[in-house]
Amino acid sequence: MITAIALLAMTASDPLAPAREGKLQCHSPDLERRTCGAIAEYAPLADGKWRNIATVRIASAPEIIMHGESTVEVEDEAICGVVSRAELITWKVTVDGVAMPAPEARAILDQVADRFASLGALGTKSCTRYRPDGDGLLAEMVIDGKPRPEASQRVIWVRPADGYQVGAARPPAMGSN
């Protein structure tokens, strides 16, 4: 219990402190099945920013998962970044664990980009703040300075060895599609 409290206090001031320990961020966790709606892995960059390597389930039947990277930074105790349409459409897509060819993936990614745009999250700064929520955190989204409570979700930090994953399939190599 003391460790959980210490982690929550540390995360409040440095939201990427667990990433410095090699942990992954599991969004919308199912503890029993050890699955996540999305997993974010963070790797530090030389300029003080971070590479966010994301795996996100966007549909469950068939299981459609997108995989991509973006650059984020810590600002005022939040994780912030800007996602552009050009960046988003380079992400990879799998359907039931099989890599989707780029033209078909592009159609799905265009729909995702349109959804981001409808939220005001495409090409504008989005920040995520974290506050304690039981044994995890509540990730609260702020888009272009405006709180978006409908985009809030539960988050836990997990070790890779814990076996959490998004869906049934592993992500494809980023250089293929």
Explain briefly what this protein structure is.
By secondary structure, this protein is α+β, with helices and mostly antiparallel strands.
List the helices and strands and how they pair.
Elements: H1 2-13, H2 17-20, E1 24-27, E2 38-44, E3 50-60, E4 63-75, E5 78-82, H3 85-88, E6 92-95, E7 98-99, H4 102-119, E8 125-133, E9 136-143, E10 146-158
- End-to-end Cα distance: 44 Å
Biggest sheet, strands in spatial order?
A: 1-2-3-4-5-8-9-10
What's the gyration radius in Å? 16 Å
Order of helices and strands: HHEEEEEHEEHEEE
For the biggest sheet, the summary is: 8 strands, antiparallel, barrel
The structure class reads alpha+beta
What general form does the structure show? globular
Number of strands: 10
Beta-strand portion reads 35-45%
Residue runs with pLDDT of under 50 for 5 or more positions = 1-11
Mean of residue pLDDT values: 89
- Number of helical segments? 4
Fraction in helix: 10-25%
Could you say how many structural domains there are in total? 1
Structure in words:
This protein is α+β, with helices and mostly antiparallel strands. The protein has four helices and ten strands; from the N terminus they run H-H-E-E-E-E-E-H-E-E-H-E-E-E. The protein has helices spanning 2-13, 17-20, 85-88, 102-119, and strands at 24-27, 38-44, 50-60, 63-75, 78-82, 92-95, 98-99, 125-133, 136-143, 146-158. Strands 1-2-3-4-5-8-9-10 form an eight-stranded antiparallel β-barrel. A hairpin with a 2-residue loop joins strand 8 and strand 9 (136-143). It starts with a helix and ends in a 19-residue tail after the last strand. Mean pLDDT is 89; it is low at 1-11.
